[in-house]
């Protein structure tokens, strides 16, 4: 557990780099590029979680593998701001080396254990397939790189969703999928806190670079309120019951895959919120630009969408407050262009507060709801 928490620390830097990259080039095209970079970094974290789920993280070779992956991820994160420029090969090469290298090492370490070895062989095969567009994309510029890397990410995520169908080996049987409810819940809960930690870091650093005017202080209070509300909304019931939900169904993959995508969407929302809060704290009373509204409202909306998917995976339902919150954010966003950034930043805070209040009100006087994931 402590090794995995140590590994997670590199993602504070990785998420901060993505925020900085998006902040410096805030446009729709760079929003999509940042998403592709996030997909790659998130899949490294997901696969290392699978490795430590399958193999004993106390084993010295596994510890060495995790630490080596941590170093490789650090290099990738450092290259992220120029990944679609001169550092493309560093980013893509690092990703391919980490994924193929780690799975090859696991294949060698699981000799004599057919189920575990075949699990890593199937995944490793598909990382070999996706390596072609990852590396090819590093040698072409502009939109061609974006298209190839998007294809590579689709291959990586699609293969996992389909249980890694591999020639002559078939798909990974459900019974052989290494999923432990307790471990999975701890890892996702820990990563969500790490992601919020990046948001706290950006908030503090941005304030430190201001003259501590009243408007900037108010923007920090708003940012902090949003961080607390997101923590509250995440852990209210579903976030605390993921482990029980995984063990409640015979096919844990039905919970694990939605959880992967739900957390990816929530983390993408946190990256957007991080960019928005840096803009509000640094320019609280200036003219609001359309791109600023996109991250200030899009980030909380993505968080609520991801949280709704997460709730469905745990309870087989979605609270109306999530959908209403997203609709309200979409409905009021056009009018925000006439308000200063500080006022624009306050609106999502009120929406998240309403969702949190609704969550609390729906459970008052009622017995705790047990998890009931889709079967």
Please supply descriptive tags for the structure shown above.
375 residues; mainly alpha; I/LWEQ domain; 2 domains; 76% helix; 0% strand
Q: What's a concise summary of this model?
A:
This protein is mainly alpha-helical.
Describe the structure.
The chain is mainly α and 375 residues long. It is globular, with a radius of gyration of 21 Å. The longest helix is centred in the last third of the chain and has 30 residues, at 253-282. It has helices at residues 2-24, 28-54, 60-79, 88-109, 114-138, 142-161, 181-208, 214-235, 242-247, 253-282, 290-315, 320-332, 341-363. The protein starts with a helix and ends in a 12-residue tail after the last helix. The model has no long low-confidence stretch (mean pLDDT 90). It contains 13 helices and no strands. It has two domains: 2-176, no CATH class; 181-363, I/LWEQ domain (Up-down Bundle).
């Amino acid at each position: 557990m402590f090794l995995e928490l140590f590994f997670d620390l590199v993602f504070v830097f990785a998420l901060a780099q993505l925020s900085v990259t998006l902040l410096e080039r805030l446009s729709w095209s760079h929003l999509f590029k940042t998403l592709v970079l996030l997909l790659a970094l998130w899949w490294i974290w997901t696969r290392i979680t699978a490795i430590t789920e399958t193999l004993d993280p106390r084993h010295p070779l596994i510890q060495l593998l995790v630490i080596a992956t941590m170093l490789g991820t650090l290099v990738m994160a450092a290259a992220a701001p120029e990944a679609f420029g001169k550092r493309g090969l560093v980013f893509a090469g690092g990703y391919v080396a980490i994924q193929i290298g780690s799975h090859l090492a696991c294949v060698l370490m699981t000799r004599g254990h057919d189920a575990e070895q075949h699990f890593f062989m199937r995944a490793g095969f598909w990382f070999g397939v996706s390596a072609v567009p990852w590396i090819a994309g590093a040698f072409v510029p502009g939109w061609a790189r974006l298209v190839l890397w998007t294809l590579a990410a689709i291959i990586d995520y699609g293969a996992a969703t389909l249980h890694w169908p591999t020639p002559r080996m078939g798909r990974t049987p459900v019974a052989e999928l290494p999923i432990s409810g307790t471990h999975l819940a701890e890892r996702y809960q820990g990563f969500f806190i790490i992601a919020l930690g990046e948001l706290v870091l950006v908030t503090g650093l941005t304030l430190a670079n201001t003259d501590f005017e009243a408007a900037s202080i108010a923007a920090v209070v708003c940012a902090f309120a949003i961080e607390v509300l997101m923590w509250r909304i995440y852990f209210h019931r579903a976030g605390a019951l993921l482990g029980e939900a995984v063990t409640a169904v015979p096919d844990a993959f039905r919970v694990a895959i939605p959880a992967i995508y739900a957390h990816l969407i929530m983390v993408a929302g946190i990256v957007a919120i991080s960019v928005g809060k840096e803009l509000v704290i640094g320019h609280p009373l200036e003219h609001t630009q359309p791109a600023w509204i996109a991250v200030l409202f899009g980030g909380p909306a993505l968080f609520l969408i991801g949280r709704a998917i997460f709730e469905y995976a745990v309870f087989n339902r979605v609270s109306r407050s999530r959908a209403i919150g997203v609709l309200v954010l979409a409905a009021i966003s056009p009018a925000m262009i006439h308000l200063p950034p500080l006022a624009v930043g306050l609106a999502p805070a009120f929406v998240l507060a309403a969702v949190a209040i609704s969550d609390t009100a729906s459970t008052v006087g009622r017995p705790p709801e047990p998890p009931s994931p889709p079967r």
